[in-house]
Each structure stands twice: as C-alpha cells, then as structure tokens.
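We both want to read discrete structure tokens more fluently, so let's practise on a single case. Once you have written the record down, we can walk along the chain together.
***
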Amino acid sequence: MNIGEAARRSGLPAKTIRYYEEIGLVHPDRRDNNYRDYGAHALEVLRFLRRSREFGFTIEQCRSLLTLYEDPTRCSSEVKHLASTRIVEIDDKIRELEALRESLGKLVHQCPGDRDPSCPIIDELAGTPLAHAAIAAMR
C-alpha cells in the first residue's frame, strides 16, 4: 500500500510516517519506481509507534520498545522497566503542572481584572513586579 493508505490505516499523518522512515523506525519496501510500499508488518510497526507515542514515550523510548516488540526472546522485565520509567516521568510532569496551576491561579486571583493597566500576570511574565510601571514610564 502507498503512504496515503498507510497513513489512513495507521492513524498517523504521512509526514510523521516519512519522519519515522528517515530516523530508521519503519522500513517500507520500495517498488520498481522507488515509491514506498507499506506491507502488513510496516503497518503493524506504524500502529505500534502511534500507540507508544500516545502513551508519551519519547522517540528513543519508542525505538527501544520497538526493538523489544520485534524480539521474540525479549524479557518482559525490560518492557516493564521502560513503562515504569514512563510512569515516573508522568508523575513528575503532573507535579510540575499542579505547581504551575497553583502559581498561575494565585496570579489570576491577584489580578483585579478591571480597566486599570496594572496586572500581576503581565508583571510576572515580564519577570519583574514593576515591569508594567517601567514600560508605562518609558512612553
């Protein structure tokens, strides 16, 4: 099948499929006219990569998972280790996002939200509490 059909069946954009080929994650066959030809195995790999990326695995983690996927002698402990590492990364990101939400929430609470140009959100984004006043003074 051509790249358009592989994209439709795998749920990945053709551009992503080309990128995965470029970095050596997928290896389509080539027809006599040098067009890509995605067979059943390539489609399996593309679906595997799509799902792996949906779980947030990095490209390098996907490469490791794909190697394990294609190795019938793999140890599930290696797969479990990669997935457990991803869970730790997700937990770290959740904590980071919660702290970000709390900080932004405080700024939103502090902002009067009126017609006055004074805004603690802008001040924080500018990196100084008096940034807005300084900009106004320069005008």
Q: What stands out?
A: The domain at 1-57 is CATH 1.10.1660.10 (Multidrug-efflux Transporter Regulator; Chain: A; Domain 2). Residues 76-110 form the longest helix (35 residues). The chain has a mean pLDDT of 91.
